[in-house]
Every structure is written in C-alpha cells, then in structure tokens.
Amino acid sequence: MTDLDLAHAAMDAAPDDDTKRLQFFERLADTELFMLLGAEAEGDQVTPELFDIEDQKYVLIFDREDRLTQFVGREAPYAGLSGRVLCDMVDGQGIGFALNLEVAPSAMLIPSEAVTWLNSTLGNTPEEAQARLTEVSAPRGLPEVVVTGLDRKLAIAAGLAQTAYLAAATYDDGGQGHVLAFIDAVPGAQDALAKAAGEALTFSGIEAGTMDVLFARAEDPLTAHLARVGLRFDLPALHEPQAPTAPGMDPEKPPRLR
C-alpha cells in the first residue's frame, strides 16, 4: 500500500477525527501524482482528460504510474506533478480530483470545494514575530503528532538545510512556546523551510503560534546550546535529479492547463 492508501484508510476508519482528515490531505499535497491527459503535451501546455461525474468535472489522478495504466488499460499521456502544484493549477476552475479510481483502496472523489480549501491552506504563510528569544530548553508538551509531522515534512525538504532543532522557548515579553531552529539553511530557502514547518503544525491540527522558526549557523553559540537541549532532525542530502520523463516532472517548469 502507498502512503496515500494508508492515510485514506486511517481517515476512513475515523470519520469524525479531524486530524486524520488533515493528515490525508497533507499526504495528497506532498505526493507526486500522475494526471491523465487528453493529448500529448505541447511544451508546457497540458490538456487534462476531464470527466463529468455527479454534475462536476474531475481530472483523473493516480499516485503511481502503473495505476494510471491499469485504469486506462493502455499506455496514455500524463503529467507528473506534486499534489500542491496540481491544486494551484486547477483551483478556481470548478475541477475536482478523481483519485485512484477503481485501482486502489484510496479511490475517492475530491470535489472542487475541497481542492480550493487545500490550495488556500497551502498558501498560508507564517508571520514574522517581533519578540526576542531569551532562553531555550528541552521541548515539552508538544503532542507526538507534531513531532512526527515535522519529521515527515523535513524529510522531503532535502538539501535546504543541514539540521534542525526543536526546543522550548521563552521570550523577552514573557511569552513561551517552542522554536524550530534550522542550521545552515541554503540561501533563499528560509521561506520554504518556514512554510514547511507551518504546514506540519496546520496538518497536525495544532493552532498557529505554537511554534516559531529561526535560522542559525553551525558556529553560532546558540547552535551549541540547541544541540545539548533540543530534539534534532537531520535533513536528507539533495541527490542529483534524474532527467524528467514526462510533463510536470521537472519542478522548475510546472505545466500549465490549456
């Protein structure tokens, strides 16, 4: 079973559990999906195969190439792209997702309203805090779902930083919370890392403001202290990507609907 299959099963088994539902949509956003096309792509222009189901239009998406082929019954053109890119691509056009229809336990219809909600949630950006950090100590009181969510989210932030430390924080205005400190982030990656941390909270069902983000260098005195008291996350190294094999597989050149 794929990660989406497992997340769907957990959501299906607990229909009243908002956290399970949030975690499913997080997996959907982070998963590489394969969208069936009506014709071969022309440059960065793609024409998805649209299906009318229950008075709404849907694109067919699958979380594995072989599942797409199994559904169609033959080789077919497709675009490969992350769920978050796909959300942004179709949002506002009245198009929903038909996920893994007839070929997987995670088969379901995701209406356009849910696509719009997910795209809006993914578009949230963290606010810059003004309070000054005065003390960091061992993390305490954070639900396990947040820690596992951070671990999962940072595992896909390959190459953006060396490590991260989670610690309890006290501020000069008397406020308390937690801080996630990224060490040796690559130039320009700060926004993406802060957004990833924010998504880990959002899709864990935790209110915003529970955790702040800061950036430090390995040689900073704060880093040595964080290494002693904080919970460490090691971000994977960035591997050389393979040449794209289908439209949308190059993250630097997402396709556009035609």
Describe the structure.
The structure is a single chain. The protein is α+β, with helices and mostly antiparallel strands and 258 residues long. The chain has two domains: 3-123, Trna Endonuclease, Chain: A, domain 1, CATH 3.40.1350; 133-234, Alpha-Beta Plaits (2-Layer Sandwich). The protein is 33% helix and 25% strand. The strands form three sheets. Strands 1, 3, 4, 5, 6 and 7 form a six-stranded mixed β-sheet that branches. Strands 8, 9, 10, 11 and 12 form a five-stranded mixed β-sheet that branches. The chain has a two-stranded parallel sheet with strand order 2-13. Helix 7 (190-202) links the parallel strand 10 and strand 11 (211-216). The longest helix is centred in the first third of the chain and has 13 residues, at 18-30. The radius of gyration is 20 Å and the shape is elongated. The model has no long low-confidence stretch (mean pLDDT 88).
N-to-C SSE series? HHEEEEHEHEEHEHEEHEHEE
Number of alpha- plus pi-helical segments: 8
Residues in helix, %? 25-40%
Give the biggest sheet: 6 strands, mixed
- How many extended strands? 13
What name does CATH use for the topology of the largest domain?
A: Trna Endonuclease, Chain: A, domain 1
Strand content is: 25-35%
Q: Assign the CATH class of the largest domain.
A: Alpha Beta
Write the CATH homologous superfamily of the largest domain: Uncharacterised protein PF11572, DUF3234
Number of domains: 2
Rounded to the nearest angstrom, the radius of gyration is: 20 Å
Give the distance, in angstroms, between the N- and C-terminal Cα atoms.
Answer: 33 Å
- Helix and strand content put the structural class at alpha+beta
Q: Can you tell me the CATH architecture of the largest domain?
A: 3-Layer(aba) Sandwich
Contiguous low-pLDDT stretches (5 residues minimum) are none
**What does the overall shape look like?**
elongated
Mean pLDDT over the residues: 88
